[in-house]
Structure formats: structure tokens, C-alpha cells
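Take a specimen:
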Amino acid sequence: MYNPRIEYRRGGRDKERNMEKTDGKKLMNVSKKSFVSALIILLCLMIAAYALTFILPAGEYERVIEDGREKIVPDTYTSTQGGIPFWKWILSPFLVLGSQGGGTVIAICALLVVIGGSFTALDESGAMYYMLCRIQHRFKNRRFALLAIVSLFFMMLGAMVGSFEEVVPLVPIAVALAYCMGWDALIGLGMSIFATSLGFSSGVCNVFSVGVAQGLAGLPMMSGLSFRILTFVIIYPLLYWFLSSYAKKIEKDPSRSLLSDKSPKGGRELIRFEFTPNKRMDKAVLAFAIVLGTGIMMIILSMFVKFLQDYLMAIIAVMFLVAGVSSVLISGMSFSKMAKAFGKGVLSFLPALLMILMASSVRYIMQESSILDTILYFFASKAANAPKYVVVLLIYLLVMVMNFFIGSASAKAFLLMPIIAPLAEMCGVNTQVAILAFAFGDGFSNIFYPTNAVLLISLGLANVSYGKWARWSLRLLLPIFIITILLLLLANAVGYNLI
């Protein structure tokens, strides 16, 4: 098994920095705190949903099947018997698995387990680090080409694979790359976790936000690529311009870095990368790229082949499993070590599974007690006379607010889409536009909110304070916020649907 060696030189003395060892305890506390906060919020939502069953009258809409999708018939709301036993409320996170839509919950949980295990094994085998080190080695004398390629690499991970938490182990090497090129840690964060978040937000083939939301709304998974690809095409050059402009500024005058008190003077001389090409690792990386590329092609093909739609979740899970296992074994890691790493990755994703089950239980409680349609009736009556674009922007705002409290894209989809999708239809808003608003609201604020554990861990690894990060990242996030609003208005105006 191969692991590239990275050494940092500071103040003329060689010093290996092991951020995981020095800051690990503190970072894990941050992660646990964020997780517990999210659980408390979800528990409060479950309690609130149960309390509403005693306050709101039960009711329901008539539903019909059109083009294979269940749709609400407007103006058919009637009162009915409601309520839910206390024992069902207590067991709702588990009962949801056997309810309508439970198959989607099970599928996304299984997919999370596979991806968590695969990425952890890839990380511990050194394959992901080797991939980045090879890129750095090839482009070390072309700094801005390296910046463009590494940023694209991370943004593609977010857009095409739905990665976000999984790239945290790569943040230290991205920061080291930035110092090696004479920049600072903000550039390293920008071309790694920032780029990943922006790609995740564009949602090109993101199964965790767009895929789950479309499945819950009854749309073909990964349909509507046009506007999501357009978003990616707009955001990527904007990100590169933002990063390269800042990099050029601090190249001319290092004191203009926001981290000037923490940035080593003359970073190119003070930080040294040692990289040795390895044929075995090259084969491992190639195997991962081929399998992953084949899977992405199948996702795109599923837009036109109905048969693939029914098995897309399973296809994605198998794709990650094959890509991860084959790459790790080719890299030289033994089967027993791979199984141990895979198990560690599975365990790391168990908190996310609990959040998904609790979020799904809120929908289950409201459906079982027949108050979900009552809530829809209330919102639909309030928004009945509102312009469609106002409804779209309100959905964007709602998801963005909820993202402050619940970071998991899948959890938010299970929580909000049962209300957002039918509400959009009753207000005359195309469901695909509503899902685009959901993807934007879920993603772009992830990399700014201080309640996001992934952001806090990444900042800790890079030794960057949240205040400086917020001051720096807002310079790009504010223009992106305006651009995404314009994209939503355009999508609503042109009748964006399945293309």
C-alpha cells in the first residue's frame, strides 16, 4: 500500500504536522455537538408534529394517478377522522420503513452505508491522496492550471457523486498544495471543500439532494439536467476567477492575505512535497475512474431508458461498491484491512441514518394522523393568489432556513418534500423548478453556516477561524445567491421540466 509523504517546513526547521492528532479531539467534539444539536431539533419537530395532531383538524385531498405520478386534485379537501396512537409516535422512526415511501428511505440509507464504507477504504488505502498528489506533481510549474484542475476535480466530486463529508480527509493536502504554490490556507479550502460544496449545490447528478427529492416527488431520478448543468457551467468559472484573483493578489503582496499572521513567508520555499510515481496506485486510480465514469454514464442514460429508472439507486450503490473495492484491492491493501476500513466508514455514517429516519418520521406522523393535507390546504390557500415566482423564492428561502438547523440533504428532503412538491403543484409551480429551489437552498449555504460540522472540521484542519472564513467566502456566496435567484426565475419563466 502506498501513501505519499507530505512535509511542511516552517521557520527553517523541518516539522511534520499531523493535524488529526493535534486537533482531532477538539474537532470530534465539534462534530458531536453539531450532531446532537441536529438530533434535538429533529426530536422537537417530532414532538411538534405529534402536538399538531391534537390541534389541527384531520382532512385529505383526493388524489389521482397521471403519467405514473400521484397528484392532488385541487379544491377537493374534506374533513376526515385523524389521530395517531402514542406508541406509533414513539416507534415512528422505524415504522416509516414499512410505510408509503419507505422503500426510498431504505434505499438511500443503504446507499449512504456503501458510500461511507467505500470512501473510508479509499482514503485509508492512500488512493485519493495519491490522485491529488499526482495532479500536483504534473502541474507544479503551472500554478493556475493546477488551481483550475484541482477545483474542477473537487467540484465534480460534489456535482456528479454527491460527495461532501467524504472530502474532509483531503482538506489538509489541498491546504498544503496551496502553501506549496505560494498561497494561503483559504485557497486550499477554496479549491477543496468550498468547490465540493458548490458542485454539490448545483446537483448535476447528486443523488442525495436532487435524486431523493425527485424520487419523493414522483419524478424520474436525475431528470432535468439542463438547468443543473447550466448552474455548474456558470459557478465553476466564477469560483476559479474568485480563487485566482485572490491568489494573484497575495502573490504580489503576501501581507494582503487575510491569514497574513498565519501564512509562512515565501510558501514555495518553506513547504516541500515529496511524491513518487507508483504503477500500482496508477492502476487503482484508473480502475476507480473507469467504474465511476461508467456509473455516471448510466445515470445520464437513465433519463432516456425507463428500465434504468426503477433500479437507479441500486445501480449507484453497486457502482460505488465496485469502484471502491476494486481500487482499494488494486492499491495493495489486504482484504482484511479493507473490510476493517469499510466497517469504520459504515459506522461513521450511522448518525446520518438516524437523522434520516427521524426526519422521515415527521412526515409519517403527519400522514398517519391525516394532518399533512390540512397543512397543505393552509399553505395553498395563503399562496393561491401569489405569483408563481414568489412561491419558488419562498421554497428557496424555506430550505435555506431549515439548512441552518439540519445539514443532511437527504434528511431535509424526507422532511420537506412531502409538503413542497404538492404545494408547488397546487400553486401552479412546476415540480422540477421546486426541486431546483430545494437543491439551491440545501447546498449553497452549507459552506457558510457555522452549524455545519463539515465546515467547522475543515476550518480546524486548516487552522482558519470562522470569522475570517465568513468574511472571505461571502465575497463569492453573495453573487452566487443572486445568480441562483435569477436561474430560478428563468427556470420558472421557461417552464423547465424534464429536459
Notes: The longest helix spans residues 19-55. Residues 1-30, 263-272 have pLDDT under 50 and may be disordered.
